Amino acid sequence: MRKIAKILFNTLRTLSFQKLLMLLKLVVPHPLFSILGFYATVKSFTLAQKFFPNSSSTNGVGNSFRHGLWSALIMMYCCKISSPQKALKFCKEMTDLHEELFPNEPLEKKMDLHNNQVGMNLFMEMLPGIHRQFFEKKFIIDRLFEKIKTAKILTNLEEDHGNHLVYLEE
Question: Where are the transmembrane segments (predicted)?
């Protein structure tokens, strides 16, 4: 836990005043969603490290898994206290804001935003079959491992890979 607190503190220190205001604009109106979103961030990071130790922090399949898992977990946790529509709106805002606060190269940004959307879509696809109060992360992880098998390599900004996870060459 101490390591996570240190990472969080060091990350927040890198943000400009304007970016801190952008973050506060998301967090202050939605304190519970923000806590759950942070928890989903930590969980997705640790699980991706466990399953993909060599590519979870690069632009490989582990990174695509992490982003898909991250957004699906935000949805899962937030749906336990609110409606799927409100959770989806917050999840989209949080994951998009992350890309603004910590910018990447254009192709990496497209990859991350696409994989975040795949995770949100996955949760919404699964929702009719499982009551949102009974969702478990194992359900999401299992489905993401299926999606990893059909993940596509993203080579340019114009590509559209539908609902497949995407990654850059490792």
Answer: 20-40
Which backbone phi and psi does 22 adopt, to 5 degrees?
A: -60, -40
User: Among 71, 81, 89, which residue's Cα sits nearest to residue 133?
Assistant: 81
pLDDT digits (tens, 9 = 90+) for 109-161: 999 999 999 999 999 999 988 777 777 899 999 999 999 999 999 999 999 99
The domain spans of the chain are 2-167
Half-sphere exposure of residue 91: CA atoms within 13 angstroms, side-chain side: 33
At 14, list the tokens. 């890198």
Q: Give the least confident one: 7-11, 29-33, 145-149.
A: 7-11
pLDDT at 53 > cutoff 80 = yes
Angle at 118 between CA 90 and CA 74, to 5 degrees: 35
Per-residue CA distances from 81 to 32, 35, 86 (Å): 9, 12, 10
